[in-house]
Amino acid sequence: MSFDKSLKTYMKHYDAAILFGMPLLLSMILLVLFPYPTFTSLGAVFLRVINLSDLGVLGIGITALILLVSILLIGITISAISLIVKEERVGHKTRYSLFLEAINTYSISISVFYLAVFLLLAGIQILTFIWDINTVLFSIVSLAISYLVFFVPFAMVIDDYSVGRAMTAAMEHLRAKPFDPLKWFFIIMIVNLAVVFILQLLMDYQLAKGIATFINGLIVLPFMIIYGAHMYVDKYPMTRR
User: Fold this and answer.
1) What are the DSSP E strand ranges found in 17-157?
2) Fewer CB within 10 A of the end CB, N or C, for the chain?
3) What is the residue-wise DSSP string for 149-201?
4) Quick one: pLDDT at residue 126?
5) Which alpha helices (H) appear in 90-134, and where do they start and end?
6) pLDDT values of the chain reduced to their tens digit, one per residue, 241 residues
7) What residues make up the domain containing 204?
8) What is the pTM of this model?
9) Structural domains counted in the chain
10) Residue 54 lies in a domain
11) How far apart are CA 224 and CA 214, in angstroms?
């Protein structure tokens, strides 16, 4: 099972997972400190379309810069943590130099891909606002796109594919195992809700939200990236044991 393998990988390489998760945590902190006109939900970034008209040139510039930096940091984290799984599954020893290797080899292409996905979703969201379409439709479309592109970054790292070939590989994986992304989304949603709920019982909501962001960025999401990478690798029969 991918989940069992992910637990073993995380326990074995938790120090590397936490180290490589630092850029992801920093990206989430940036978005929390400057959320206007964006907001985060379950690790994704969305626009508050109604606020766009209130932004001046400076606001647009700052927002664009923070989004670019955050997406780059997310790309670094996904590439580095996916490399942990790649190296483990081929029997290589995990090296901290993987962090630099990930930056040089995969992070830029993954970040450009995520930027393109964000711009696509932002464009669709703006159109639904302009045309006064029910926001439920945008939620459905965004979930569908997220589902379709879920395995693309893993294909880029695990198989060293280009973006185009990775998209094809992602579609092939979905045809073989269509429920894998749904399992991933369900687990992270339940864990995030549980963490926030428990923290709210113990402390003020704003403090609970901040601590939940820290836990999500440094512990939960690094593990879930490991889980997603194992899901992708498990498509190869020779790796299933």
Assistant:
1) 38-41, 44-47
2) C
3) HTTHHHHHHHS---HHHHHHHHHHHHHH-TTHHHHHHHHHHHHHHHHHHHHHH
4) 79
5) 98-102, 108-130
6) 688 999 999 999 888 888 888 888 887 777 666 655 554 443 444 455 445 556 567 767 777 788 888 888 889 999 999 998 988 877 666 666 767 777 788 999 999 999 898 888 888 877 887 787 777 888 888 889 999 999 999 999 999 999 999 999 999 999 999 999 999 999 998 998 899 889 989 888 778 878 888 888 889 999 999 999 999 998 776 555 4
7) 2-234
8) 0.87
9) 1
10) yes
11) 15
**Residue with tokens 């992602």, as numbered in its chain:** 170
Q: Which helix (H) or strand (E) holds 57?
A: helix 57-89
Within 10 angstroms of residue 126's Cβ, the number of other Cβ atoms is 14
Rg, the chain, Cα only:
18
What is the spatial distance between Cα 19 and Cα 81, in angstroms, rounded to a whole number? Answer: 9
Inside any domain, residue 13: yes
Contact 51, 83 (CB under 8 A): no
Secondary structure element (H or E) that encloses residue 70, with its range: helix 57-89
Q: How far apart are CA 239 and CA 1, in angstroms?
A: 11
Does any domain span residue 189?
yes
What DSSP designation does 224 have?
H
Contacts by 105-110, CB closer than 8 A, 24 or more apart: 105/79, 106/75, 106/79, 106/82, 106/156, 106/157, 107/72, 107/75, 107/76, 107/79, 107/80, 108/72, 108/75, 109/75, 109/156, 109/162, 109/163, 110/75, 110/78, 110/79, 110/153, 110/156, 110/157
Cα 43 from Cα 24, distance rounded (Å): 10
Residue 239 resides in a domain = no
